[in-house]
Amino acid sequence: MSISIPASIGYAASGGLIAPLVNRNALKAEFNTAKANQLTVMYNYQKTILNGYVEVANELSNIQQLRDIISLKSQENEVLENAIVASKEFYRMAKANYLEVLMAQQNSLQTKLEWIDVNKQQQIATVNIYKALGEVGKIAKNKGVHLVSLSESG
Predict the structure, then answer these.
(1) For residue 141, what are the CA distances in angstroms to 17, 42, 134?
(2) Contact 66, 125 (CB under 8 A)
(3) 143-146: long-range pairs with CB below 8 Å, 24+
(4) How far is the CA of 130 from the CAs of 13, 111, 123, 135, 136, in angstroms?
(5) Mean pLDDT rounded to a whole number for the chain
(6) SS3 134
(7) What does the pLDDT look like over 64-97, one tens digit per residue?
(8) Residue 119 above 70 pLDDT?
(9) Cα–Cα distance between 126 and 105 in angstroms, integer?
(10) Which of 35, 54, 73, 88 is geometrically suited to a Cys-Cys bond with 115, CB 3.0 to 4.6 A?
């Protein structure tokens, strides 16, 4: 068995030149896979940011509606407190029975309980905003994005 050294050098050199041509398709496929993965990550990031924005916008709208309800419940409570005073006055003048006084007090108490429930919902919505902002902030920080805080924007 005689190995020709000049021939083996020639085969090695030609193999070294042909290898990139053979691996070209593999390199292209690897590049396209990496590019597709990068796009997927970018789209998922954008989706997460958009979902966070929608969550915050929904909670802000919810808080505004709850503020309006609290205001209305406060007005309703004032009216019912006046109704209690009036019903007590009518009872004292023998124009109403004590059941009417109790009903006025019950209505007022019910309105106060509703006010407390709506106030609780508003506090929960406020916490949810901070949670949503925190999640978006964590994601942005991990991606190296600087978000403008509310105090910086106004």
Answers:
(1) 46, 15, 10
(2) yes
(3) 143/45
(4) 65, 29, 11, 9, 10
(5) 82
(6) helix
(7) 999 999 999 999 999 999 999 999 999 999 898 9
(8) yes
(9) 32
(10) 73
Give the DSSP letter string of 12-33.
HHHHHHHHHHHHHHHHHHHHHH
How many Å apart are CA 110 and CA 104, to the nearest integer?
10
Residue 124: closest CA among 68, 71, 70, 66: 66
Q: What is the residue type of 54? A: V
Amino acid sitting at position 90: F
Look up residue 126 and give its DSSP letter.
H
The two structure tokens encoding residue 140: 């942005």
Decide if pLDDT at 2 tops 70: no
